[in-house]
Amino acid sequence: MSQIENKVVSKILDRAEVGLSKYGTTMSREDLSRLEWLRHAQEEAMDMAVYLQKLIDEEEKKKPCKECCSESRIPQWTRTSSLEELEAETCKRCCIRSSKDFVCDTCE
Q1: 14: left (phi over 0), alpha (psi -120 to 50) or beta
Q2: How far is 88 from 70, CA to CA, in rounded Å?
Q3: CA distance 71 to 96
Q4: CB half-sphere exposure, 47, CA atoms < 13 A
Q5: Global pTM exceeds 0.85
Q6: Which secondary structure element, helix H or strand E, spans residue 18, and what is its range?
Q7: What CA–CA distance (Å, rounded) separates 10 from 12?
C-alpha cells in the first residue's frame, strides 16, 4: 500500500476506537435494521454536503487580485516576465504563490 492508503487505514482504525469509546459497540452490532443503517449513512452524507458547501462558499468569496493574479489565483507573470514584474507585489490572500505580506484592496 502507499502512504496515502496507510493514512486512510490508520484513520479508520482511529475512528473505530472513538466509536467504541463513545457508543460502547463496534460496527458489528446487530441491533439496527438495514433501514436504520441507511438513515445513519444518509445523515453522514448530509453532514458532508454541509461541510462541502461551507468550503465552496469560502472559496467563492475569494476574488483574485486583478493587479497580480489571473482567475486561477496564479500570478500572471511567467518565466519570461521582466525582473520588474517578478518584484511586483502579490497579494498573500488571493495569490497562491505570494510570499509577501502585501494584501490587495480586494482582500482587505
Answers
A1: alpha
A2: 15
A3: 11
A4: 6
A5: no
A6: helix 3-23
A7: 5
Length of the chain: 108
- CB count, 10 Å around CB of 71? 8
Asked if 74 and 97 touch (Cβ cutoff 8 Å), the reply is: yes
Q: Which residue in this structure is represented by grid cell 454541509?
A: 50
Cell matching residue 9: 487505514
3-state secondary structure of 79: coil
pLDDT digits (tens, 9 = 90+) for 7-50: 999 999 999 999 999 999 999 999 999 999 999 999 999 999 99
Q: Where do we find the cell 487580485?
A: 65
The CA distance from 88 to 85, in Å, is 5
Instruction: Determine the Cα–Cα distance for residues 62 and 31; give it in Å rounded to an integer.
Output: 47
